[in-house]
Amino acid sequence: MAYTTDTELKLMARSLQEHITLANELNLSFTAQLLSMAVMEITTKIHGISQQELDALCTRIEEKSAFDEKQPIARFPDFRSYNRRSRARRNRSL
Fold it and tell me: What's residue 2's pLDDT?
């Protein structure tokens, strides 16, 4: 019976995913978000993920995001203005 339930849940999630695509195409972003939440609930049910596990995952992601925001952003030099000489010209000067 679990096989039938999982199959039905997967079909429901697939159908909702199609509705999410349509909602996005119609610029119904809030509707798409609500449908995405339903898909997430169905998916957690299929995979046997508990609410506590989901909460722990969300907490970890929030902690990681907060840590990443504190990290300085590395700046790379702008090499586009670098005076490039062709390989042939460089070889001639040697």
Answer: 65
